[in-house]
């Protein structure tokens, strides 16, 4: 059973599908309900390529409803999920009764550790642009930049320049594919945080924020 997320739909499908096919496994793919079309196209490609019937199977629907059903089903030998911590916990509980194998890649940001001997201009700029890729909707977005305290001011200035060089569109100018995420982000942005790094960029440019 392969369960994939919405933010990198075709990438995650390929990463799970290819090794399963290579070792001769049959599979059921349940893509995110917010990004279903890549999976449908992949199903057509596999069909046209002559993959035998029953090797690849596609099920569309709500993850909260289908995930536990498949994870607890006795005919499913393994579940591979890329998603949230809550989804991972739910899948693990459902799979525990039948002791099936579970592979989880859960949400969380990556630390970006910059050492004292690093080329700061190169490292900081790379860190900022990497975090902004795919509009920041990446599980490995390096939003936690850890730097030597004595070079913090220099890093902040470099990060400011990198942010100001990016062209950021208005998220309210067009319909959002992930409207539920937009609503969640808006509510979260209004909550107080224990510490908020200072931003020296303008209101219209990307800013450094605690994630």
Structural account:
With 211 residues, this protein is of the alpha/beta class. 40% of the residues lie in helices and 13% in strands. It is built from 7 helices and 7 strands. It has helices at 9-22, 37-48, 63-71, 85-96, 120-132, 152-164, 179-189; strands at 2-3, 27-30, 56-58, 78-83, 101-106, 111-113, 144-146. The strands form 2 sheets. It has a 5-stranded parallel sheet with strand order 3-2-1-4-5, sandwiched between helices. α5 links the parallel β6 (111-113) and β7. The longest helix has 14 residues, at 9-22.
Brief account:
With about 210 residues, the chain is an alpha/beta fold. The C terminus is likely disordered.
Descriptive tags:
211 residues, five-stranded parallel β-sheet, 40% helix, alpha/beta, 13% strand
- Strand percentage lies at 5-15%
Shape estimate: elongated
The topology string of helices and strands comes to EHEHEHEHEEHEHH
Please tally the helical runs, counting DSSP H or I stretches of 4 or more residues: 7
């Amino acid at each position: 059973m392969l369960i994939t997320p919405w933010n990198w739909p075709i990438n995650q499908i390929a990463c799970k599908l290819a090794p399963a096919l290579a070792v001769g496994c049959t599979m059921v793919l349940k893509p995110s309900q917010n990004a279903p079309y890549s999976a449908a196209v992949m199903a057509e490609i596999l069909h046209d390529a002559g993959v035998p019937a029953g090797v690849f199977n596609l099920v569309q629907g709500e993850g909260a409803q289908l995930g536990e059903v498949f994870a607890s089903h006795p005919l499913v030998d393994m579940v591979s999920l890329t998603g949230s911590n809550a989804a991972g916990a739910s899948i693990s509980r459902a799979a525990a009764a039948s002791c099936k194998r579970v592979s989880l890649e859960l949400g969380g940001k990556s630390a970006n550790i910059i050492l004292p001997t690093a080329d700061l201009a190169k490292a900081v700029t790379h860190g900022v642009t990497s975090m902004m890729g795919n509009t920041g909707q990446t599980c490995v977005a390096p939003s936690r930049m850890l730097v030597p305290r004595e070079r913090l001011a220099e890093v902040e200035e470099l990060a400011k320049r990198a942010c100001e060089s990016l062209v950021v569109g208005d998220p309210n100018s067009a319909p959002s594919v992930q409207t539920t995420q937009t609503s969640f982000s808006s509510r979260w942005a209004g909550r107080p945080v224990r510490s908020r790094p200072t931003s020296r960029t303008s209101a219209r440019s990307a800013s450094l924020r605690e994630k």
